[in-house]
Automatic annotation (TrEMBL):
One of its GO terms (molecular function) is ATP binding. Belongs to the class-I aminoacyl-tRNA synthetase family. Its main location: cytoplasm. It is found in: Cytoplasm. GO terms for cellular component: cytoplasm. This is Arginine--tRNA ligase. It is an enzyme of class 6 (ligase). HAMAP family: Arg_tRNA_synth (MF_00123). It comes from Candidatus Azambacteria bacterium GW2011_GWA1_44_9. It catalyses: tRNA(Arg) + L-arginine + ATP = L-arginyl-tRNA(Arg) + AMP + diphosphate. One of its GO terms (biological process) is arginyl-tRNA aminoacylation. InterPro entries: Arg-tRNA-ligase, Arg-tRNA-synth_N, Arg-tRNA-synth_N_sf, ArgRS_core, DALR_anticod-bd, Rossmann-like_a/b/a_fold, tRNAsynth_Ia_anticodon-bd. Its EC number is 6.1.1.19.
Length: 519
RNA sequence: GCCCUCUUAGUUCAAUGGAUAGAAUAUCUCCCUCCGAAGGAGGUGAUGCAGGUUCGAUUCCUGCAGAGGGCACCA
């Protein structure tokens, strides 16, 4: 809808003028408005009239108020647009076709997923959904850090728990290590593994747990990329290092190899994580040829952004193709006091615990509502208490109400309203009331919401839209009875309900939230 | 010390540089003869401080205060 209005304004202005069109927040400002008159000389009302002339049937009214120009969309145009949205196959609103890799969570396999991992997890999952809706080819990827020191440390921790090694402060603590040690004990008794091998074994075991947790919250990955198997074992680090050396970008100092002030190979000959990461991004950009790579990291890695971008540039890749999204850390608060979350100290709330206490859908919505850059304090007890008031239920309830009405219509054998697969033309020409039209205006916003989100990655917009759409529906439900005496009116309203069910269902599906039949 | 992020109703969050700063929740009133009240209608209530740029600043810039995070031959 917005791009349509923009196109009309552009036609009138004739030249490149920077302006924007937004959905209006207040009824007196119409349905949409633009600030275009701020940027051109002349009477705003005259400009408004010219715009109206350009698309007479589309606009019911175009009116300048001060320098703002407000648009009222005609009923026919609204209905036409709604039909268009409903009939879009799979709601795929564009076909942009970029090959995008989105890597998220990638928590080290040295412990269970914490609730903070959920933040980046849900963000990545939903962002991937959004990007798919505009036609991109999206690969969801989890990078498994199974090659560094932490694996050896994990192995030592397990051995220490079995009394086969000296306990140290740096070891991973917590019950999960003891449980893990118990599970591995049988195998370890037969074979005499070193710390690194034990670590690898333990990491594989923990990765199974991580996969289970993610499955439980409906986050799927296309690729689980093992640093050890796919990079180290295949000698990819060496290859990338050689490439960089050939291009004269590597310098030697104090026995180590450097790239632009960062160490690639330590003086003891061991590669750094930086080199592994370069090999990884070489794999993504050069070998697998992704047009765009999105990494979602926690705020504790923000200092690493410049380094990686520099490195990627050294590989000959335009660093703008690498988009890094930072999510602020989540602080765990208990009884008003902060608890440091640490796998080493064994102090954390796992994602599993959180989901068990608060519920899958409420957990998802809670994280998705918040912009990634907001700092969050998280109190498990409070979250549990508040989950009853989570807006997700408001949205799901609207969806349930749609279903309840349509069920009743079916029982009464009312026909001519159904929209199987969203293909049928909506028969809603005789809907006139404000709550009905308002609902239609909300429904029609779906493509704009998805497009904008695919553009700026602000996933919380989708969650907000879900609430707004639900409100428009609840409002309609309260004001108008759907199944009434007049047959035509009933059919029209049922069609509207059916359209709402489809679009609300699509929004829930983008958000990865369950579409319940009952609550 | 240097760098990044954040600061908006009691609380949790919105607002591509635009209009009278929106919601939710809490609180105070109302509304079930009804397709489910997990709902609807209304009241109260907010931009940390000081400058600057601009026709216009919650938004951009500078300084200050407060909160979180980062500054490794760790990953």
């Amino acid at each position: 809808m917005i791009s349509k209005i923009e196109a009309v304004i552009k036609k009138v202005l004739g030249k490149e003028v920077k302006f924007s069109v937004t959905a209006s927040e207040k009824p007196e400002f119409g349905h949409y408005s633009t600030n275009a008159a701020f940027f051109v000389k002349g009477d705003p009302q005259k400009l408004a009239d010219e715009i109206r002339q350009q698309a007479k049937n589309f606009f019911e009214k175009v009116e300048a108020k001060g320098k703002f120009i407000n648009f009222w969309i005609s009923k026919n145009a609204l209905l036409e647009e709604l039909n268009k949205v409903i009939k879009t196959p799979k709601f795929k609103i564009k076909n942009l076709k970029l090959k995008i890799n989105i890597e998220f969570i990638s928590a080290n396999p040295t412990g269970p997923l914490t609730m903070a991992n959920g933040r980046g997890g849900f963000l990545g999952d939903v962002l991937a959904n959004v990007l798919e809706r505009v036609g991109h080819k999206v690969t969801r990827e989890y990078y498994i850090n199974d090659a560094g020191n932490q694996i050896k440390l994990l192995g030592e921790s397990v051995l220490a728990a079995l009394g086969k090694a000296e306990p140290k402060d740096t070891h991973y603590q917590g019950n999960y290590i003891k449980e893990l040690a118990g599970r591995l004990n049988k195998e370890l008794r037969i074979k005499n593994y070193g710390a690194e091998e034990v670590g690898r074994l333990a990491a594989a075991e923990l990765l199974k747990e991580i996969k289970k947790s993610l499955k439980n919250v409906n986050i799927d990955f296309d690729i689980w990329f093992s640093e050890y198997q796919n990079l180290h074992k295949k000698g990819e680090l060496k290859k990338v290092l050689e490439t960089l050396e050939k291009n004269g970008l590597v310098s030697k100092r104090e026995g180590a190899k450097w790239l632009a002030g960062h160490v690639l190979v330590k003086s003891d000959g061991q590669p750094t994580y930086f080199l592994a990461d370069l090999a990884y991004h070489y794999d993504k950009f050069i070998k697998r040829k992704f047009d765009c790579v999105i990494d979602i990291w926690g705020a504790d890695h923000h200092g690493y952004i410049d380094r990686l971008k520099t490195g990627v540039k050294a590989l000959g890749v335009n660093p703008d193709k690498l988009k890094i999204i930072i999510t602020q850390l989540v602080r765990l608060v208990e009884n008003g006091k902060e608890v440091r979350m640490s796998k080493r100290a064994g102090e954390f709330v796992t994602l599993d615990e959180l989901v068990k206490e608060v519920g899958k859908d409420a957990t998802r919505f809670f994280f998705l509502m918040h912009a990634p850059e907001t700092h969050m304090d998280f109190d498990l007890a409070l979250a549990k208490e508040k989950s009853q008031k989570n807006p997700v239920y408001y949205v799901q309830y609207a969806f349930v109400r749609c279903g309840a009405i349509l069920r009743k219509a079916k029982l009464k054998r009312i026909k001519n309203y159904a929209m199987p697969a969203g293909r049928q033309e909506l028969r809603i020409k005789n809907l006139e009331s404000e709550s009905e039209l308002n609902l239609m205006r909300e429904l029609v916003k779906l493509p704009d919401v998805v497009l904008q989100t695919a553009e700026d990655c602000q996933v919380s917009r989708v969650a907000r839209y879900a609430s707004e759409l639900a409100r428009a529906f609840h409002n309609f439900y309260e004001k108008e009875r759907v199944i009434v005496e007049e047959k035509e009116l009933t059919e029209a309203r049922l069609a509207l309900v059916s359209a709402t069910q489809h679009i609300l269902g699509e929004v829930l599906s983008i958000l990865g939230i369950n579409q319940p039949a009952k609550m």
